[in-house]
Here is the input.
Amino acid sequence: MTVTPAKLAPTGRPPAPAAPVRKKRTPISRVILTAVAVVLGMAFVLPALWILIGSFRPTLEILTTMSPLSWHLIIPSEWTLDNYVRLLLDSGFARALLNSFIVCIASVLFGLIMSSMAAYALAVFQFPGRNLIFAIIVISFMVPFEAIAIPLAQQFTDWGLGNSLIGLILPGIGNGLAIFNLRQYFLGIPDSYREAAMLDGASEPRILFSLYMRLSGPALTNSALLIFIGQWTAFLWPLLIVSDNRQQLAPVALAGTFGEHAADYGQNFAGTIVLTLVPAISMFVLQRFFGRLSIGSGEK
Amino acid sequence: MALPVTTKPAAANRRRRAGRRQEMLWAVVFLAPAVVALAVLRVVPTVGAIVDSLYKAFPGGIIEATFTGLGNYRSLFSDPAFVDTILRTLVFNVIINPLQIAIALMLAVLFIQKIPLAGVWRTLVFVPVTVPIVGSAIAWGAALNPNGPVNALISAVGGDPQPFLTSPSQALACIIVLASWIGIGYWMMFLISGLQAIPEELYDAAKVDRAGPIRTFFSITIPMLKRPLLFVLVADTVANFVLFVPVQLLTQGGPQASTTLLMFDAYRTTYGYGSRNLGAAEVVILTAIMIFFVLLQFRLLREEKTPR
Here is the structure.
């Protein structure tokens, strides 16, 4: 996302008549705007900074520096990795983290294949009821999963999918926005590519997997990110479907340590940082694609 | 079209028809996984919830469930506590969604201005989005502790310490703050893309017409941003109607039911009180509200691709 030139120019004075001067802004308003931006940025990041720093200091120090207000709130007198060590070695969090990874990667893999296939059929083939099927698929997958998670969990438990990887993965693969994104992207690929590939004797699956998907890097990245983050942050579903602690996913495991020993903020904060870093790293790496997520602004 | 056309038109037609039949077949094959997933993951639980909501059973399931029609709905809506939950959920959404989107819009407008390091300040606002909500809830729970840093800050500027999550009149407001800390940066990114898509010439024209910044904002920015604004507003509403984690982790619906929102109530009725059928009725009510908003959202998305 690049910084574009300012579009609103609250100069606070009537525009100067001469063209070269017009582009210039009064330094005062620029200073104020910058100050506001800095203060707001700081206000938003401060709680996150507190978590980050707290994860590297002894729990007792987090508690003693909370009040009264002083610089010690975010400046530790002692740095330690103890919270992370305890978190990963003692609490079973490491296993939960591994479970989360497996679930996320499998969900992205199956989710992308399923979404691409559906998107391809809905973008390329002409058949009666195409728009209706598209609407039904996207609308149903857009109803937030949480709304029907409770009856689905009862259903899955009845089917013996409780405490299973399949039970954890399945709900994450259907993502309406992923299908929507991919279809929009596929619609932009010229039909002549497909015709050329067909003349070369390529089958439909071949055209999808080695032509369309190869051309759709940004849309695939977006969809992968949507599925990954959806599964990585899922809380309600693993809470409902997993009763065996060894099968549990990281967010619920973290909440579990919060419940057990409410005062162990050091460990809680360390867990929060670990859970944050994984999607944050993938997001920042893929940040240049992130702008394309914004379906709401399709004015391009 | 460098096709070596050697066949007669009739043969070509036949081949095209065969091709279309084959396309039909491939369409079925390609759509099958998504349709099956849809049936298993959405239709089955929804139908299951509707059916369950029409039966009455005792917790434990020793006695066979009996058909009761709309009895569960009747008993829900004749329960003042449930009516309060519905009203509370509506009020919560009427406050939190416009609030988040208004702040997100102001921040979006601010961060597209020509200011030094605008990208950095914008990223700082986006950072909370990357923190999983479980972690955010734990951290805000600690921060809003009566002896926590927020009260320390209030004391430092001369105010009285507040009870926050332990007060029936403040707990829901705390949940709003927590959810907005995460939500604002997220929706801001959508609005920034929307703002960047507004043609520069419009602003130049406004300058030529000597329109002030406020006039420009309401006459150009808002109308041009209508679609992205509506989209984020509806999407935000959908997300906040099923807000669950902070309530579950921090307040358990209390104190004095002040943070009992519909999603949490459905969970607690089903698992906490073991009333599967009553819980199913709550899920059906929640799902109906969700479907309404999603249809609204889909309409907005569809308008995006209509040619101008």
Summary: Chain A touches chain B through 107 residues (CB under 8 Å). Chain A has a mean pLDDT of 80.
